[in-house]
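pinging the channel bc i need a second pair of eyes. not urgent but kinda urgent?? the chain im working w is below, pasted from the shared doc
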Amino acid sequence: MNEKKLTEILTALYEHKLSPQEGVALLKELPFAELQFAKADTHRELRRGFPEVVYGAGKRKEQIVAIVQKLAKDAQKNIVVTRISEEVYVACREEIEGCEYFAEAKLMIVRRGPQEKKGLIAVLCAGTSDIPVAEEAALTAEAMGNRVERLYDVGVAGLHRLLPYRDLLFSARVLVVVAGMEGALPSVVAGLVDKPVIAVPTSVGYGSNFGGLAALLAMLNSCAAGISVVNIDNGFGAGYQAALINRLGEDKK
């Protein structure tokens, strides 16, 4: 359910083109669709402006197909499915139109028409090993209708690789900065720009990185102001948050 669909139903009721019983039948799945193993939040696009995002890890292939089918039925905006294999994508593609898979990020987008690209979100990552998480963030933000620029392999081991791109840093409305190891890059970027920085720690690193915990703590303890931090490897969460910030900037125009 989305604003356009709800408006059509209410208009049809107002013009007596639908009976009250027919209107109830169309609206009965407004809060969620009961699938026994899941409750697909068909109301989320109307409530939050973007459909429910499906977290694929731990779900069976058949479950993901059923959930995405239900969400895609009336969706006007793209649907995002995270952490899935190519096998799951193939199963979805056979049943649902518009599926596109991005293997590096393990993410699928179900396209629902052209999406207007607004503002500018910059997605940076410290090293090439961080790219899968950075791509999850970038693709999520793009699917939500944002213009995204990527800047990869610009970590603190060689700051000369970052500084030539200051124009991009300054022109972005919000920046997503992804880093593993010691997680220092978000602090450096936040010290250069006057925009919100969303820091994403990754599990990339040697033993004392503790699966990303060292980077997470470094980002939480940054002395640079204006940084918010998401969980380890949570590119999706960063991309979504960046999209909300970017949308707020658009709404103020």
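so Residues 235-251 form the longest helix (17 residues). and The chain has ten helices and eleven strands. — does that match what u expected or am i reading it wrong
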